[in-house]
Amino acid sequence: MSTSELRRRHESEGYEHLASTSSRTEGSSSSQRDASYWSRFSQWIQDSCYQIMAYTVWDNIVSGFKPGRVRAFELLDIQSRDTVLLVGEGSGLDFECLPEQTNRAALKAFDFSPQMVRQCKIKAQQLDIPEDNCFVGDAQNLPFTDERFDKIYFPLSIASIPNPSLALEEAERVLSQGGKIVVFDKLVDDAVSITWRRKILNIFTRCIFADINRNLSIILHNVSDLKIIHYESLEGKLSGILTKPLGGFYRIAVIVRDRDFPDQPAIQAHL
Ligand SMILES: C[S@@+](CC[C@H](N)C(=O)[O-])C[C@H]1O[C@@H](n2cnc3c(N)ncnc32)[C@H](O)[C@@H]1O
Question: Is the CA virtual torsion 188, 235, 75, 260 positive or negative?
Answer without folding.
Answer: negative
